Amino acid sequence: MKSGDWRKCDHAYQTVKTELCTMGNIVLRGSRIVMPLAARRQTLMLAHEGHQGIVKTKQRLRTKVWWPGIDREVEDLVRSCHACQINSATSQDVPTVRTELPEKPWQMLAMDMCGPFPSGHHLLVVTDYYSRWVSADILQNPTSMNIIKPLKHLFATHGLPESVVTDNGTPFISKEFKLYLQENGITHRRITPYWPQANGEVERQNKTLCKAIRSAHAEGKDWRAELDVFLLAYRSTPHCVTGRSPAELLFNRQIRTKLPELTCFQQNSTKDDVAVRRADAVRKEKGREDADRHRRAKESQVKQGDRVLLRQQKQNKLSTPFEPEPYTVISRKGPSVWLEKNGIKKMRHVSHVKLWIEPEQDASLLYDGIKPTTATPDAPKQKESRPQRAKRTPTHLKDFVT
Which pLDDT score, from 0 to 100, does residue 135 have? Predict the structure, then answer.
């Protein structure tokens, strides 16, 4: 630098040559020290003490030191820090997947348990994916046998469905429930564990039912008696997605209520399946686009063979959001991934995992109080840095030789 011959210097130094100067044996860029290669790694580790994020670590370094490619090295260090990976924010949201409308009513049902309520009761909520018909049975003890009893009555009224969708609650994974479905030729699909959105149809109905129950309780009424009043009103009201009432789509007719009406002007109840499917698809697509845009969702890059961190349930204030030990992805189907660690296999939604970056060896040594080994004096050629605008030498450094 003192000779003025920049041809032997790395291109990254040539782009900022007007900003460089010396103070004794120290090279400066403005007021920041240009760190030699052997000290850069330790400088990065010191700046990352306290495990601040990428932005904060960069800000901390930029006030004191500089070298070509410093921002890229900070990003690599923080992203590969094991402690930061298991304590950082949750992984990126993935795009919403909508359930396709079944071909006919009562073909695919969704089930879930709602409760318990202060009285100790639970609700067995059953929803038809096609018509949005809702059935709610009050249970004192939600065991598998107590669930099967109202289902027998429900299926005797409307017939046996082809498939049912449930979560992984204890009553739905019992041998009795599994045997009952098999005997009746009903396919059982369980959603991904800890991902209730996969059974969103019935989860949404649970919210509506809970609101009706709270309203009845606020008016001093018996919510168990008012439940049937709500169900009659809901089943006879046109749904916001299909534009038809659940009763009309399930029974192919409109049911009579206490509201006055002229039957001679009553709409033809013959359902137009094409119109229903169009309305359902348009509404679902709009909801999906709005949700994905709001959450800034993007497709997950997790694939078979990747090492990932799995989100864990919070136990206390010191619990990390992710388990410390990584898992291996053994397979993936749509938004669901199958993981394995030490012979234990788990299925989770892809939003519950994130790619694990192998921590660099010298980083772990420094955290244990061992300084990293000194780098070789022959520095590898630095990659070309980003273009920067030329700056004049600061006036307070005009007496220094550059």
Answer: 92
